[in-house]
């Protein structure tokens, strides 16, 4: 069963890579998607399986009730398989990180530079933010690999420390990372270019990280690091490699941004296709850099046997969410909701910039995916005469989606983080992040209103 799931994952990824250059059969993609879904359900953890079956059943009922064509069902079932392909490709970045022992570099900087938990927290969040710009959904396993050894015995409340740093660092990257799917959707709806969003998005990301740092510093993370007395062995190899490996990580991020930018400049592939292609190229080059390392063969073997299977839980979940989102989109359900929201926005005027994000987040908490909501609310905001620029509207959508990604226990990042840290999604989302999200939402909306670029 595991072997067939791995084969389905690889074929889906290969089909999406092939689709960048030539059309592929929807029927073939649907077959392997259905195969992965059916077999993956047996492998999926119980917490994931419950949510997956909920969305799949609801999506199927909508398709049946509205008597939508079978072709719509196939399109909906496969609508988020591009995300699955991105997850598989982005997981390749974990191979050079493991072969190159980048966790030793992280531990070196942790022990050398940081004395208190709050400064260490800011560093962990910043590193997550940088890695999330190219790892996207693959950020969590890589961050666990990088930080687990260094943090587990160094800070108190390890799981809370790690979960909030990962969730906030990852989500705040969605404001500026050119490959973030939510940015691509918002750009499409608002007709704003990435270059227009980069500067305000980067500023919002910095505001969020500083807010998170201040909140944690003044509430709980003001203690010395527990194991600072246990200094790392001052080996010349670790000290010598640390600056070089730090430069590698920065170079990878720059290469991805430049690569995606060049693909966009020459109109090669779609938005998600550019991420997939750039990620494949950069990760392959990075892996090739370590081609002479004896460990590479073992790490590649482990990735083929078990590493790729880490994508199964999330892949099956995204298939179900894709089916549900596609069914909702094609059924016309949103057309019943939109007039009510439209009337409310017209009545509230400028105050709608407060109400719309709250409605967005509330609906997301009920299980509607933020990607779907970004499109729906984007159309509503653009159709109303407000004293806001299109960039400000785009920022409001990004802020609403970012907060929803953090505090919704149904969001993929909450589920992934909870799984890897062995805690519940409710702890990761609401219990540990609600206060931060409330503060950041207010800051973000004020910033979006003032930014009229």
From TrEMBL:
Keywords: Membrane, Transmembrane, Transmembrane helix. The chain crosses the membrane at residues 20-42, 48-68, 80-100, 120-148, 169-191, 197-215, 246-263, 269-290, 311-328, 348-376, 388-412, 432-451. It comes from the Bacteria. This is Integral membrane protein. It comes from Sulfurospirillum multivorans.
